[in-house]
Amino acid sequence: MAEPLFKVELGKSMADQEVPGHNRWHPDIPAAAWTDPGTDFRVECMDWTNGQVGNNDSANDIRDMDLSPNHTLSGPIGVNGAEPGDLLVVEILDMGPFPGPETEWGYTGIFARDNGGGFLTDRFPDAHKAIWDFRGLYATSRHVPDVKLVGIKHPGIVGCAPSAEMLAEWNRRERALIATDPDRVPPLALPPEPHNAILGTLDPGSPDFGRIAGEATRTVPPREHGGNVDIKNLTIGTRVYLPVYVDGAKLTTGDLHFSQGDGEITFCGAIEMAGYIDFGVDLIKGGMEKYAMNRPGHMPMFELSHLEPTYSSFLVFEGISVDDNGDQHYLDAHIAFKNACLNAIEYLKTCGYTDEQAYIILGAAPIEGRISGIVDIPNVCCTLYIPTEIFERPILPDDVPKRTASTGNLAVGS
């Protein structure tokens, strides 16, 4: 087992941990621990909500959640010798839930429209929740019957700290977006929020705390440094190349998922969990320039793992760039993927699932979401692949006429 470098005690707020993590991005958040290139280590993580969700049959905790403490993250981990312009090479060696009957569970949430929302929030404006139980590779839910899926465990968030200049640019462009429709629900973006900011080992009473809390960005979106990318394929065996923007890199992770579909469409659409993740780190000096990862808008890259569920049978749904009112949009992948999701939900209802159960399945199961065509004006074609082997009830149309003989015998000689 890799040596624990960052520990958490479940049941305690992140702010009350022996060494606190953080829930904002800022270059001046101190490193919680340091390590050398060429080392392996373990990072323990709370769930992304700071322990606000319980293993119960009520969605009140989703409905009433305080989103200002989220995401609750572990780190930053400083890497000796890392400098701006380097690449931090991070290998995901292992991860999972904390072992034991009280901790081997997770949850998927549909957030209310007026408190977080989701990809289909206009169709699903109210809060719902499903609890999942883990047994080895598999997850099942008392709230979503006849589904047994193989998880593809991954961190929703992994990234290095931004530079001061990068942070200022994030704030500039996101504030400009908010200003185009400041009263929108859900909002277009989230500005810095000092309330409930956790800034690592910084003393909340120190002069720097107020300044940093007022500048630090929220952790909701992915950005150039990586962050909340929610890529299900960032799993055990993956190697990630992270650009370094500050001395020490200040690597952070969290928002661990047992499983997720492409898009994590319910907002809390993965199977969220607390747990551990083992990393190995190395440095490529000057790697950002050497591998052309320094242009504006560039993001980390990663090598795929060989470890994935080997589902082979899928039912595929399609969507194009035409909205609910029948209006045509030009090559709009957002609308096209929305239509593919809605078509899948309508179909799953014919198999005995409710609207909300179907929505949860699309968020939590390892579905494949693809842009299948993006050049044929005016429509994008997006597709959504549901692995049929996760279901323990009939899921395919059963009234297709058979074209094979049901009786007969081998031919024999005369």
Architecture blueprint of SSEs:
Elements: E1 3-6, E2 33-35, E3 39-45, H1 60-63, E4 73-79, E5 87-97, E6 105-110, E7 128-135, E8 138-141, E9 144-150, E10 154-160, H2 164-179, H3 207-215, E11 222-223, E12 226-228, E13 239-243, E14 251-259, E15 267-272, E16 275-284, H4 287-290, E17 301-303, E18 314-319, H5 333-349, H6 355-364, E19 368-373, E20 381-387
Parallel strand pairs: 1-3, 2-4
Antiparallel strand pairs: 3-16, 4-14, 5-13, 5-16, 6-7, 6-15, 7-8, 8-9, 10-12, 10-14, 11-12, 13-17, 14-15, 18-20, 19-20
Helix pairs in contact: 5-6
- CATH architectural name of the largest domain: Sandwich
CATH H-tier superfamily of the largest domain:
Acetamidase/Formamidase-like domains
Multimeric organization = single chain
Report, as a whole number of angstroms, the end-to-end distance: 71 Å
The percent range for helix content is: 10-25%
Major pleated sheet: 11 strands, mixed
Overall geometry comes to globular
Strand percent estimate: 25-35%
CATH class of the largest domain: Mainly Beta
Secondary structure tally: strands: 20
Count of structural domains: 2
Low-confidence stretches: none
Radius of gyration, CA atoms, in whole angstroms: 23 Å
Helices and strands: which structural class? alpha+beta
Contiguous helical run count: 6
Describe this structure in words.
- The chain has 414 residues and is of the alpha+beta class.
- The chain has 2 domains: 3-303, Sandwich (Jelly Rolls); 314-390, Endonuclease I-creI (Roll).
- Helix content is 14%, strand content 29%.
- The termini are far apart.
